[in-house]
Design brief:
heterodimer; A: about 100 residues; mainly alpha; 2 helices; B: about 575 residues; alpha+beta; Penicillin-binding protein 2a (Domain 2); Beta-lactamase; 2 domains; five-stranded mixed sheet; five-stranded antiparallel sheet
Chain lengths: ~100, ~575
């Protein structure tokens, strides 16, 4: 039997370490994925939260800016009125 | 080697024993990990593991927002919390009841009786639709067997202004009235659920799969313009109060698209406060209630007369002596008008003139015209409970039936149908379907159903109604020419018509020279002293039309002050300071 050369040994060591490296990479990627999913989840939660807030602000805005309230304020507090026909100046565009 | 062989049996037995033990171990491992039926085997272990990590997460979905044509919100859902309890658990710790009842704002006895009433159940609502902060305070007490559930509550920012057309939902967020009901499937969201893997700290680390996908409700844009809606609501409410009327409706229709720009009724209700709703105020009367129109039908009968070829706008009918006998009935004019042409018959709303005209025509022509204009037919809005109206047809027409048809008795319709019929007059004989939803593609193609020669003749007559000599002089609008017709109808009662109960109406088109809108006003049972359509409904028409045209940015026709602008040219002298 010939004395075994160093070639096969090197190959085995290389393959083994490649295997270990790839296994560690799988672990790290999995960890990364989990982190990203968690982030995605919290962003989704935030988006739902913001959606709710948007709805509430929409309601608030339309309550404050309701036509009856605006009209009452304009008439009583600002003393405004609808212009009479004599007060309207119609500006025609020259053809 | 002798000493080895001597004791080799001992060695072998030890090795054998070790092997057997190892085999037993491997068997145990294999049975736990591989064989399915082992007690506390892999199924049990997997279950325990899953129970600690796999969670089902709800995916929330909202009910769609309802807006007006400009995107103003009319119905919005926001989350609220409902508190529920499991009586089985809660009944076991009576010491917590005091705290819980206090937090709920109840008496302890109330809570106790509620729990004992539902003692056989595992679910009972304690309080529904609390603001999230209040619910958090109650859950914060840490009472066993008390939980919250997220629900959605519908808010209606426009309140009673748009209550009838928008409708409302019930406590479980399902459509109950109006467009909320008609488009429930479109608006409703469907919440979903998914399975996720969570780690020790509650972070989601893996999505395992979707159990049910969520579908958010889609938004709905109505055809109404909230500004016009508010204006119509305000004016109608004022008129109904002023005249002590039982009810009233206003419909504003866009002539060019057939969209309903405003639809209001009195009495109305506040959809945000369900405790004070009276069933009678829930009805969208403009769509669900029919009435006998009376004189507002006369221009449409004249339209049929013109089309028959027997009459033209200057045809003269002698109405002397101011009454006419048809069968056993005597039909009266207020005074003897003498000889009238068709225009003045409409302007004066002469009963005698209309009767003579109708009796000179083929019996079916007037009914056919009404039918073509949409009376006795659904308008196709899809609104729940919409009335179709009654437009009887006879094989053998009695003279009285022919006469009453011509001045709007013996048939009934909704306020929307009335506006829809007049929209044909306003758009040169073209008919467009009525829509309660915003039309996405403009313009809407109309279907020609009457020759424009006849409609423009009738429009001319309708302008006379609003003049000083006509019955509708109070419908005048300062800045724009308008055209329209008054109607005053006795209400039908058991065994005939009531002498002292009326419906006053006015339907008109504005601006008359280039129509944008049709406005129909109906006032139900105004008090005895003022009940004519020209007195109760025409002023509402006037103020709604004036405001609506201004809001629609229609330039006033009769502005006394005009300026003309043109581009600056090289020779111009600049006098003042320009910005």
């Amino acid at each position: 039997m010939n004395k075994p050369g160093r070639g096969p040994l090197v190959l085995v060591v290389a393959l083994w370490s490649a295997c270990v490296v790839s296994a560690l990479a799988v672990v790290s990627v999995t960890q990364q994925v989990r982190r990203n999913i968690d982030e995605l989840e919290s962003l989704r939660r935030e988006s739902a939260e913001l959606q709710v807030q948007w709805g509430q602000y929409l309601l608030e805005q339309s309550t404050w800016a309701s036509y009856s309230r605006v009209e009452a304020k304009a008439r009583r507090e600002l003393n405004m009125h609808v212009p009479q026909v004599e007060q309207i100046i119609l500006i025609d565009k020259e053809p | 080697m002798q000493h080895l062989t001597l004791k080799s049996w001992r060695l072998y037995s030890v090795v054998l024993a070790m092997l057997v033990l190892a085999a037993l171990l491997i068997w145990r491992i294999a049975s736990l990990q591989v064989l399915p039926d082992t007690d506390r085997g892999y199924q049990f272990l997997q279950g325990q593991g899953d129970a600690r990590t796999i969670r089902t997460e709800p995916i929330s979905a909202y009910r769609g927002v309802i807006t007006d044509r400009n995107g103003e919100p009319l119905a919005v859902s926001t989350p609220v919390e409902s508190i529920w309890a499991n009586p089985q658990i809660l009944l076991q710790n009576p010491k917590d009841w005091g705290r819980l009842a206090q937090a709920l704002g109840w008496k302890k006895a109330e809570l106790e009786s509620r729990l004992t009433r539902y003692s056989g159940k595992e679910f009972v609502y304690l309080e529904r639709h609390l603001p999230p902060q209040e619910a958090a305070a109650i859950i914060g007490l840490g009472v066993d067997g008390v939980y919250t559930q997220r629900e959605y509550r519908r808010y209606y920012p426009a309140g009673e202004v748009a209550a009838h057309i928008v409708g409302m939902t019930d406590i479980d967020d399902r459509g109950q009235e109006g467009m909320e009901l008609a488009y429930d499937a479109w608006l409703a969201g469907e919440s979903g659920a998914k399975q996720v893997l969570k780690d020790l700290r509650g972070r989601t680390v893996k999505e395992l799969g979707l159990i049910q996908s969520a579908r958010s409700g889609r938004p709905l844009a109505l055809s109404i313009d909230l500004r016009l809606q508010y204006l119509a609501h305000r004016e109608l409410k004022k008129a109904v109060q002023e005249f002590g009327a039982k009810a009233g409706s206003v419909v504003v229709l866009d002539v060019r698209t057939g969209e309903v720009l405003a639809m209001v009724n009195q009495p109305s209700y506040n959809p945000n406060d369900r405790t004070s709703i009276h069933p009678a105020s829930l009805r969208n009367r403009a769509l669900t209630d029919v009435f006998e129109p009376g004189s507002t039908m006369k221009p449409l009968a004249v339209l049929a007369a013109l089309e028959s070829g027997k009459f033209h706008p200057y045809s003269v009918i002698d109405t002397t002596p101011g009454y006419v006998q048809v069968g056993r009935k005597t039909l009266l004019d207020p005074v003897n008008y003498g000889e009238l042409d068709l225009t003045r018959i409409i302007a004066k709303s002469s009963q005698v003139g209309m009767t003579k005209m109708a009796l000179a025509m083929e019996p079916n022509l007037i009914r056919d015209m009404y039918y073509r204009l949409g009376l006795g037919q659904g308008t196709g809005t899809g609104f729940p409970g919409e009335a179709v109206g009654v437009l009887p047809s006879y094989t053998k027409w009695k003279p009285i039936q022919r006469a009453t048809y011509a001045f709007g008795y013996g048939l009934n319709l909704t306020v929307l149908q009335l506006a829809h019929a007049y929209a044909v007059l306003a758009s040169d004989g073209e008919q467009r379907p009525v829509s309660l939803l915003r039309n996405e593609e403009e313009p809407v193609a109309g279907q020609k159903i009457v020759d424009s020669e006849y409609t423009s003749a009738v429009m001319k007559m309708l302008r006379k109604v609003v003049s000083m000599q006509g019955t509708g002089s109070r419908a005048k609008v300062e800045a724009y020419p308008v055209a329209g017709k008054t109607g005053t109808a006795h209400k039908a009662d058991a065994g005939g018509y009531a002498d002292n109960r009326y419906i006053g109406s006015f339907v008109g088109v504005a601006p008359a020279d280039h129509p944008d809108i049709v406005v129909a006003v109906m006032i139900d049972e105004p008090n005895d002293s003022k009940y004519h359509g020209g007195q109760v409904a025409a002023p509402v028409f006037s103020s709604v039309t004036e405001g609506a045209l201004r809001l629609l940015q229609e330039p006033p026709r009769s502005a006394p002050n005009r300026l003309t602008v043109r581009k600056r040219e090289p020779g111009d002298q600049v006098v003042g300071v320009t910005l």
